[in-house]
Amino acid sequence: MSTTHHTTWQLGDRTVNRLGYGAMQLAGPGVFGPPKDPEAARAVLRAAVEGGVDHIDTSDFYGPHITNRLIREALHPYPANLSIVTKIGARRDAGGNWLPAFSKEELTAAVHDNLRNLGLDSLDVVNLRAMFDVHGPAEGSLEAPLAVLAGLREQGLVRHIGLSNVTAAQVQEARRMVPIACVQNQYNLVHRGDDALIDALAAEGIAYVPFFPLGGFSPLQSDTLSAVAARLDTTPMAVAIAWLLQRSPNILVIPGTSSVTHLRQNLAAAALVLPADAVAELDRIAAMS
């Protein structure tokens, strides 16, 4: 792990700042329904772009539909340099449960829903989220859904294809079929199962986008992380983001928040360079978990 880091990386055919924004938290509790304060959500989106964010991660199953509509209301017409990355492959039922949506009809409808709700003619990047197991990556062929997505790309509705919640074998299968712009999986100080995959993707110039940098729905509880943050006079979230940025140059980080104050703290983490002794301490967290 380097003590310095590149500030940009390739995402499809664009060069983006490595610190982006994840819009998941803009929906209501459990990523379901509207937020309590829609105008505050739109303010966070505007502040993100004003703060230099040029890629936003979203999905039409956040809400559902809520997050994409907020993005359109806040930012449309979009800045020319803004990449919006969305996901398909899942749906929500009336109770907010996450269910697979892998049929040709469901995937096609999902792309059109994203286009309509975001106000776009073509989606910059669409990640196919594997749903063989709702809770994490599980083996299973992606050939059929990827063929659907490749067809939508040929129609011009999708510019680049990515993957989410996938195994290394699924990445290899997908790359034999279509160019892959990015891989999005859970990865952080504790969940480091993708170490080898990250390095392999970096060698190929492919972005890796970790979600849940602080554990997501089950937040990381780490005395070591808290102690390092206190010593550096910053927040645990900033340290977790900085660690990811230093882990590998192809990592794009998309921390989410519904607070402008927290957003600005997260954006400041892009300038935080962790000293080698702090990195060594943080690396031991995974070994102890």
From TrEMBL:
Q: Which GO terms describe its molecular function?
A: oxidoreductase activity
The positions making up the signal sequence are none
**One Pfam family, short name please?**
Aldo_ket_red
Which Gene3D superfamilies does the entry mention?
A: NADP-dependent oxidoreductase domain
Q: Tell me which InterPro entries the record gives.
A: AKR, Aldo-Keto_reductase, NAD(P)_OxRdtase_dom_sf, NADP_OxRdtase_dom
Gene Ontology cellular-component terms for this entry are: cytoplasm
Every copy of the NADP-dependent oxidoreductase domain together lies at: 18-286
Q: What is this protein called?
A: Aldo/keto reductase family oxidoreductase
